[in-house]
Automatic annotation (TrEMBL):
GO terms (BP aspect): alkaloid biosynthetic process
Name this protein carries in UniProt: Beta-glucosidase 17
Keyword Endoplasmic reticulum: no
Key words, A-Z: Alkaloid metabolism, Glycosidase, Hydrolase
Keyword tRNA processing: no
Cited InterPro entries: GH, GH_1_N_CS, Glyco_hydro_1
One Pfam family matching this protein: Glyco_hydro_1
Protein family: Belongs to the glycosyl hydrolase 1 family.
Source species taxonomy: Eukaryota, Viridiplantae, Streptophyta, Embryophyta, Tracheophyta
PANTHER family, alphabetized: GLYCOSYL HYDROLASE, MYROSINASE 3-RELATED
Length: 564
């Protein structure tokens, strides 16, 4: 860790981490270089196992999915189109294998058997999202409520609870109704705030008597970056979207100084602004109208990588601070202080929207808990923009990301995912130190492998890399808890292999292998599912191997967990 005298957020955190590293290494001589202390600590921890007993009894273990990626049944039960339906239909080349999620894992029809699998593994919770266009096909109440959609989620929630599994429900996981995108540009327009509140109010009313943990937004950063900077996610706007962004969006409320024409230097900031205001309005609605008698909690889930300075110098440390500000701080700073990070105000200037006093007040502290999605990390170094550089969210931070040039860890299947378990520890401590967040869930953590279509089912079930990934990350979470971070839960992404956005079906994240070739979507537990069951269960004998568990007649998870 760098030892310069930078006064920024990263250096403040760095000093804190160095103190903790020394405290956690009793009997060692004080080492002047903090990074050496960390390496020693991590090497010692690598030889130690983590068990369920390392976490409190009320610590929640679950898995996570999302509606568009997993439900399938795109044309069933009165569901309306979402922007992902349109995106995969009209621009199939944006998805690697030209696929879509029209069927995917079909949890819509198979939720009962899927919940039984969760129960057999021993999960405490299941994080899923509600498809806005399945309950409100036209996007708002005046266009009609789809009773079939309401019935489906009621049945899912009731089935989960009947099996002792707590539902954690996300209200928006990127699948905006196409009707609202067509009408006024969706989250580019402030009108979305009113319509979002109608949608969430319906959800609170219909499901809030049983759902006690609500998440307003899942990872708004990826929605903004993929959908409005890179054009690789729905609705496909941004730097690579010229072929299908036709003219300006017809929103005339609150955007008069910013053209909505696919500009990656303006649109992502407008969308993030409206996402934040929609979140704050939804939380206020819940707290004012529903929370007292429903006795639930409401929060938000944010994504962040860990950013490590490439060199031990002040410039790269400051670059790391800016990288955090433009990813995590873009959303967490307004939720903590009521405004965007100072570095964003300085570098983005007039392109960054402003909050009114009333909006800032509504935003500040608008979460009962924070969800963090962590997968990966990267080295960063300082960059300077030339006068002719394109004005864009990607160039505004003045940061160079060096994941390919200098990888921070082993590469997984996806181009963006490098394995660095230490990052989850560092990120948790950073959030606690910088933002004073009192209560955190890890709402997504996982690793993918290439979908090798030549593998047999038996070969595809062997995923030792996934077992090690989760073991190492849980060990680091345990250490963060020991360092004073209040982490209360861990959700694995994902329960099943599924449609992975612009990666399509070319990668697999699930702890269950799904056979997409047999026409039945049969589920097979990977070794990671067996490991998780063993981890969570006190009934299995200590020290038994995967193969011993698998071959046992008394405890045969393959026979017990296989479906289809």
């Amino acid at each position: 860790m760098c030892m310069s005298k930078t006064s920024g957020k990263y250096q403040s955190y760095s000093n804190s981490l160095e103190r903790q590293s020394v405290i956690e290494t009793p009997g060692r001589t004080m080492i002047s270089n903090g990074s050496e202390v960390q390496r020693s600590l991590l090497a010692r921890n690598a030889s130690r196992k983590v068990t369920r007993r390392d976490f409190s009894e009320d610590f929640v273990f679950g898995t996570a999915t999302s509606a568009y990626q997993h439900e399938g049944a795109a044309a069933a039960g009165g569901r309306g189109l979402s922007i992902w339906d349109t995106f995969t239909l009209k621009t199939p080349g944006k998805v690697k294998d030209n696929s879509n999620a029209n069927v995917s894992v079909d949890t819509y029809h198979r939720y009962e058997e899927d919940v039984k699998l969760m129960k057999k593994i021993g999960l405490d919770a299941y994080k899923f999202s509600i498809s806005w266009s399945r309950v409100l096909p036209g996007g708002r109440l005046s266009a009609g409520v789809n009773k079939e959609g309401i019935k489906y989620y009621n049945n899912l929630i009731d089935t989960l609870l009947a099996h002792g599994i707590e539902p954690y429900v996300t209200l928006f996981h990127w699948d905006l109704p196409q009707a609202l995108e067509d009408e006024y540009g969706g989250f580019l327009c402030p009108q979305i705030i009113k319509d979002f509140c109608e949608f969430v109010s319906l959800c609170f009313w219909e499901f809030g008597d049983r759902v006690k943990n609500w998440i307003t937004l899942n990872d708004p950063w990826t929605f903004c970056f993929g959908g409005y900077v890179m054009g690789s996610f729905a609705p496909g706007r941004g730097s690579s979207s010229a072929e299908h962004v036709k003219g300006s969006i017809a929103c005339h409320r609150g955007t008069k100084s910013h053209a909505c024409n696919g500009n990656p230097g303006t649109e992502p900031y407008l969308v993030a602004h409206n996402l934040l205001l929609a979140h704050a309005a939804a939380v206020d609605l819940y707290k004012q109208t529903f929370q007292q008698h429903q006795e639930g909690k409401i929060g938000i889930t944010l994504f962040s990588k860990w950013f490590e300075p490439l060199h031990d110098n002040e410039l790269d440390e400051e670059a790391a601070t800016r990288a955090f500000d433009f990813m995590l701080g873009w959303f967490l700073e307004p939720l903590s202080s009521g405004d965007y990070p100072r570095s964003m105000r300085k570098l983005v200037g007039s392109r960054l929207p402003s909050f009114s006093k009333e909006e800032s007040k509504l935003l500040k502290g608008s979460f009962d808990f924070l969800g963090l999605n962590y997968y990966t990390a990267t080295y960063v170094k300082s960059a300077s923009n030339s006068p002719d550089v394109e004005v864009s969210y990607t160039t505004d931070p003045r940061v160079t990301y060096t994941s390919e040039e200098v990888p921070i860890g082993p590469k997984a299947a996806s181009d963006w995912l490098y394995i660095y378990p230490q990052g989850i520890y560092k990120l948790l401590v950073y959030v606690k130190e910088v933002y004073k967040v009192p209560f955190i869930y890890i709402t997504e953590n996982g690793v993918d492998e290439i979908n090798d279509t030549n593998h047999t089912i038996s070969e595809a079930r062997v995923d030792d890399i996934r077992i090690k990934y989760h073991q190492d990350h849980l060990l680091c979470i345990r250490n963060a808890i020991k360092a004073g971070v209040n982490v209360k839960g861990y959700f694995i992404w994902s329960l099943f292999d599924s449609f992975e956005w612009n990666e399509g079906y070319t990668v697999r994240f699930g702890i269950f292998h799904v056979n997409f070739k047999d026409g039945h979507l049969a589920r097979f537990p990977k070794f990671s599912a067996l490991w998780l069951m063993n981890f969570l269960s006190s009934k299995l004998a200590k020290g038994r191997t995967k193969r011993q568990i698998e071959d046992s007649e008394e405890h045969n998870p393959v026979k017990r967990l296989k479906t289809g």
